[in-house]
Amino acid sequence: MTTAIHWVHLLAAVLAVGGVVFVRLVLIPSAASDEDASPFVQKAIDRFRPILWACIGLLLVSGLYNVFLVAGRGGFAVTGYSHILMTKIVLALVMFGIA
User: What are the pLDDT digits (tens) for 6-32?
Assistant: First the structure.
């Protein structure tokens, strides 16, 4: 079960970050020079938005599961994982803000 949750978390992160990077760095700039591409870009963004929100939900649920799993083993005190966790949470919030 834990391995499946880790894979869900990883795949949701890859899909969310990859999709946002693609839209921001490839799709929007390539359509900026063409007036006819604007409806296409808007339609593509509208189709990606539900996927992105599903990924964010999966990241939140699987991330909380992972935190409770580490906390249950005493991982915060032993490994200093709390600093890494806070960095990951801040980066996730930045990504959610960009999205």
Answer: 999 999 999 998 998 898 898 888 887
CA distance to 3, 16, 48, 50, 59, per residue, from 75 (Å): 18, 27, 36, 34, 20
**Residue 18 near residue 52 (C-beta atoms within 8 A):** no
The whole-angstrom separation of Cα 19 and Cα 23 is: 6
Q: Please state, in angstroms and as integers, the Cα–Cα distance from residue 84 to each residue in 45, 58, 76, 90, 92, following that order.
A: 32, 20, 10, 10, 12
Is pTM beyond 0.85 here?
no
